[in-house]
Structures are given as structure tokens and as C-alpha cells.
Design goal:
The chain has six helices and 33 strands. Helices cover 8% and strands 37% of the residues. It has 571 residues and is mainly beta. The chain is globular, with a radius of gyration of 23 Å. InterPro entries: Cu-oxidase-like_N (IPR011707), Cu-oxidase_2nd (IPR001117), Cu-oxidase_C (IPR011706), Cu-oxidase_fam (IPR045087), Cu_oxidase_CS (IPR033138), Cu_oxidase_Cu_BS (IPR002355), Cupredoxin (IPR008972), CuRO_1_LCC (IPR034288).
């Protein structure tokens, strides 16, 4: 059973008094440029309302959110509401050239969406080129009024956003990489809520501080908004309890370290010490790296600071100890594998896990790196003098120059896209072993997959060792999915499904495909429209590790894609 019944039920609720349900929340996002200084370097960045990170969106489950985006910079812009289901509302999803043309200079577009069946933390970010490096902010979704959390209500709730900072313009970074065919320059620092912290040069004043009281429980809403790095996070001498991921409640479990990929969100409960500890504690994050090549191997830190007793003297303050957390090795694939297996859905009467028990459509998608030939009269810096590329089933997805959703809605696909995306690899090989194919060239095309409405879908994402195995965070727009299985090596279609968890698998919108391994997920295609699926490493998306699904209309009015809004941007 999909979400169409939920959508119909929500429509009935909206007939009830507005004070009880259906509050509309209005925001205005002015896309501007302003100067920001980090690491003793000042640069002009693109931002929302001159804030970095951008403003917080707060809503309750069931609320309607209306955001008018006004573009006042020369860059084209679009905003994606990462993880919002957008049921029968693809026009508001945001990825440029997929569900909309970008908003051009001096133009505006109003995103209008309702939050249905979700509560927790999501985030919004630019969805064109690499602009999300500075254009991002949290989405806080509270339970409906008079509804409780499935855990004790926290004393306070604080978004913790991980980001990446470059001293130079990130648009120049990716443009140079695409031109030369080599890997892009890595970031100069990681940030917590836009601040790099005391472990970087010239940054002690740019440190995020979280002040807490003894004997309280705080909810930290963790968001990985970094462009190209998965992160380990820990707070010295404190245990964290995970209760929610990607705006879905989980069975609680304790951990000293959180692993979080770009695109993922994780709500954790932090229970402070019962008495003033006469100490401060570093909260630190550093990358998990599983690929080849270079990466930013630095560490971002903030400070957890207890409010001191009212009558403490300055002398006591000088004796305060500073504790530092212990993080896993930056290449610890074993820690990542063990950590991710802890996640389970609540799967109870109040919060059921509607896992597809039977499958209508099965797909095996290889994901990984590849190459394109170097153009004549050019010297390229990719593998063996080629240009880096990335692909799904060896198809490197080419974004069109007009929006796919409009083309689909008006039946104008000719010359824009085809619907013959391969369901399995066209040339199977030993994906994670030896020998790897000598030919690493990809096929560049705009091919889509078509799904009947409400069909049950199983997708196996298989990493490959072509140009190096790597953990890839894959994000699906417009749907959540249940992670029913994962493993290392090549997926075995005869034996691996026997061990699938169809009872209480975690429900997500972004999942890390293990380096040298595979992940299997299931979902109902219950949302009509065109939906992007891509690696949330921005460099891999730029190289073509992306694809799109067409979900056809259903039979009921609520299962059909409505006409586009009158202010939908034009290409």
C-alpha cells in the first residue's frame, strides 16, 4: 500500500478548523552575494538572505510551507527541499533541468509544498552546479500539535550542520575540473554551522559553541551538507542516542560516534552530565574516505560548554579541563558497516514500516567511476590522459537544456530523453574483483526508467572497482525507501535475498552504498512525476552518476500530476 490513501486522508483533515491542522508558513528567500571571512580569507559567496548557513525552516507535520525565492545574483539558482516527499507535487522538488528550469537573474519562483507523514530533520539546498556549498539550511519538522515524540521530549533542540569551505569560488573549482578532466581541488576546511573551529589556522574565534545545563537532554539535529565527504562525529566523554534519521523515527540505539553521509540527517539525544563537570568537551568531525586520490583530511571542532554554577570564581574557571573525542580511522570501512547495520524502523502500530513484501520491478544498477575520451588538441588530467566520468549501469547521465518534468507532462520527450535505461548491466563483469574491464569509457545519454503508479520496486546498487571502489551516498528524490539488505563483494541474486530484512528495515532517502559492496532497497512508486536519483558527492553528480525515474499517473485525481504553476521558470 502506498501513500495515496494517506494523501486522501490528509485532504479530509484539511477540511477541519485551520487552528487544528493545516497551518501555512511563509518564507522569503532572497538569493544574494555577500562577503564572508573564514581561515583569514574573505570571499564573496552566494547565500540566502545574506546568511551562511541559510535560515531555518520550522514546520509541523501536516503544515503547508510556501517559500518565495527571488534571484538577485547572476548565477542561475534552484532550491531542493531534500527529503520532502512532494506527493503529486514534483513542480516544487527543485533539481535544475529535472523538475524545473533554474530561476534566472531578477526572476522569482514560489515553492509550495505540504509536509505529509514526516517528522524530524531534513534540509534545503541549492540544486544546480556546486552552489549548495554555501546555499543550504535546516528544515525542522515538529510533530503535530498534541502529538508526542516516541521518546522523552528534549529540553532544547539544536541543528548541527556539517559543511565544507573553500577559500576560492567553488564554481571555479568544478568548472576547472570539468574542463581538464581531472579531480577537483579539495576543500580547505570542514565547518559546523558554518564555522571551522579552533583546530584550523586563524579560526579560534570562528568556533561553534553549544552551551548546556547539567542533567538535561538535548536533541542535536545532525545534517551532513558537505559537498563531497562522509563524516564521523563524536562528543568527548558523552554518549549519543540515535532516535531519527531522514525524518523517520528509529529504534533507539547508543553510540559514541555517528557516521553520516552527505544528504543524510540524524537526530541524536545528548544527555548531559548530572553535575557541573568543571570541564569542556570538544565535539569533532572528520571524514571517512574510501576512494582513491586526495581528500581533505582535516578535522572540524566545536565546543560543548556547561553553564557554570552561579557562584563559581574566575580562579576555578582557569582550571577547566578540555577533553577531546576519539574518532575512527579515516579509512575505517568496518566501522561504517557495523554502524549502519544498527538502524531499524520502529515498525509499530503508530509508526508502521510498509515494506513491499512482493516485487513488481527489479533493477540491478552498477555505480562507480569511468572515463570519457580526451578531446582532440587537448591535454586531459583524468586516468591515463582521459576525462573522469561516473555512471549508473555505464550510462553517464546528461542533463538536458530544458526540464524533464515539463517534457514528460506535455508529452514532448522527442529529442530530450529516451525511456530505455537498462534494468541490469549490459555487459556484466566481476564488479568488485579482478580483472576489471580494460575499457573504462562510459556512454553519455539522457535515458530514464518508467514505473507504473504504485508498483513495488526493488533496486540493488552495486559498487564497482573500476578506477577504485568507493562508498557512494545515493539519494532518491520524491520517495523514501527501505534498506532491506547490504553486503560486500558482488550481489548474489540467489542467496542474498534470503537474508533480506522485510520486517523492520530502516526507511531513508539517502543511503551509503558500501565500498566494494552492494545495497538493496525497496519502495512503492506512489508519487507521479519525474524523480532524480544521484550520488550526493557533488563531484560524482557533476561527472554523471545520476539518473531519473518517471512514475506514471494513477487512476485517482490525487494520484495524478497537476498542471505546472504559472510562475514555473522557463529555460
Amino acid at each position: 500500500m502506498g501513500y495515496s490513501y494517506l494523501l486522501f486522508g490528509f485532504a479530509i483533515l484539511c477540511l477541519l478548523p485551520q487552528s487544528t491542522f493545516c497551518i501555512t508558513r511563509h518564507y522569503t528567500f532572497n538569493i544574494v552575494k555577500h562577503n564572508v571571512t573564514r581561515l583569514c580569507t574573505t570571499k564573496s559567496i552566494v547565500s540566502v538572505n545574506g546568511r551562511f548557513p541559510g535560515p531555518r525552516i520550522i514546520a509541523r507535520e501536516g503544515d503547508r510551507v510556501i517559500v518565495k525565492v527571488i534571484n538577485q545574483v547572476s548565477n542561475n539558482i534552484s532550491i531542493h527541499w531534500h527529503g520532502i516527499r512532494q506527493l503529486a507535487n514534483g513542480w516544487a522538488d527543485g533539481p535544475a533541468y529535472v523538475t524545473q528550469c533554474p530561476i534566472q537573474f531578477n526572476k522569482s519562483y514560489t515553492y509550495n509544498f505540504t509536509i505529509i507523514g514526516q517528522r524530524g530533520t531534513l534540509f534545503w539546498h541549492a540544486h544546480i552546479s556546486w552552489l549548495r556549498a554555501t546555499v543550504y539550511g535546516p528544515i525542522v519538522i515538529l510533530p503535530r500539535r498534541n502529538e508526542s515524540y516516541p521518546f522523552k521530549k528534549p529540553h532544547k533542540q539544536i541543528p548541527i550542520m556539517f559543511g565544507e569551505w573553500w577559500n576560492v569560488d567553488t564554481e571555479a573549482v568544478i568548472n576547472q575540473a570539468l574542463q581538464t578532466g581531472g579531480g577537483p581541488n579539495v576543500s580547505d576546511a570542514y565547518t559546523i554551522n558554518g564555522l571551522p573551529g579552533p583546530l584550523y589556522n586563524c579560526s579560534s574565534k570562528d568556533t561553534f559553541k553549544l552551551k548546556v545545563k547539567p542533567g538535561k537532554t538535548y536533541m542535536l539535529r545532525l545534517i551532513n551538507a558537505a559537498l563531497n565527504d562522509e563524516m564521523f562525529f563524536s562528543i568527548a566523554n558523552h554518549t549519543l542516542t540515535i532516535v531519527d534519521t531522514d525524518a523517520i523515527y528509529t529504534k533507539p540505539f547508543n553510540t559514541n560516534v555517528v557516521f553520516i553521509t552527505p544528504g543524510q540527517t540524524t537526530n541524536v539525544l545528548l544527555k548531559t552530565k548530572p553535575h557541573y563537570p568543571n570541564a569542556t568537551f570538544l565535539m569533532a568531525a572528520q571524514p571517512y574516505f574510501s576512494g582513491l586520490g586526495t581528500f581533505d583530511n582535516s578535522t572540524v571542532a566545536g565546543i560543548l560548554e556547561y553553564e557554570s554554577p552561579l557562584h563559581s570564581s574566575p580562579t576555578n574557571k582557569t582550571k577547566i579541563k578540555l577533553f577531546k573525542p576519539t574518532l575512527p580511522n579515516m579509512t575505517s570501512t568496518s566501522f561504517v558497516a557495523n554502524f549502519t547495520k544498527n538502524f531499524r524502523s520502529l515498525a509499530n502500530t503508530r509508526f508502521p514500516a510498509n515494506v513491499p513484501q512482493n516485487v513488481d520491478k527489479r533493477f540491478l544498477f552498477t555505480i562507480g567511476l569511468g572515463s570519457n575520451p580526451c578531446p582532440k588538441n587537448m591535454t586531459c588530467q583524468g586516468p591515463n590522459g582521459t576525462k573522469f566520468s561516473a555512471s549508473v549501469n555505464n550510462i553517464s547521465f546528461v542533463l538536458p537544456t530544458t526540464a524533464l518534468l515539463q517534457s514528460h507532462y506535455f508529452g514532448q520527450s522527442n529529442g530530450i530523453y529516451t525511456t530505455d535505461f537498462p534494468a541490469t548491466p549490459l555487459n556484466p563483469f566481476n564488479y568488485t574483483g579482478s580483472p576489471q574491464p580494460n575499457n573504462t569509457f562510459v556512454t553519455n545519454a539522457t535515458k530514464l526508467v518508467v514505473l507504473p503508479f504504485n508498483s513495488s520496486v526493488e533496486v540493488v546498487l552495486q559498487d564497482t572497482s573500476i578506477l577504485g571502489a568507493e562508498n557512494h551516498p545515493l539519494h532518491l528524490h520524491g520517495h523514501n525507501f527501505f534498506v532491506v539488505g547490504e553486503g560486500f563483494g558482488n550481489f548474489d541474486p540467489n542467496n542474498d535475498p534470503i537474508n533480506f530484512n522485510l520486517k523492520d528495515p530502516i526507511e531513508r532517502n539517502t543511503v551509503g552504498v558500501p565500498a566494494g559492496g552492494w545495497i538493496a532497497f525497496r519502495f512503492f512508486a506512489d508519487n507521479p512525476g519525474v524523480w532524480f536519483m544521484h550520488c550526493h558527492f557533488e563531484v560524482h553528480t557533476s561527472w554523471g552518476l545520476r539518473m531519473a525515474w518517471i512514475v506514471l499517473d494513477g487512476s485517482l485525481p490525487s494520484q495524478k500530476l497537476p498542471p505546472p504553476p504559472s510562475d514555473l521558470p522557463k529555460c
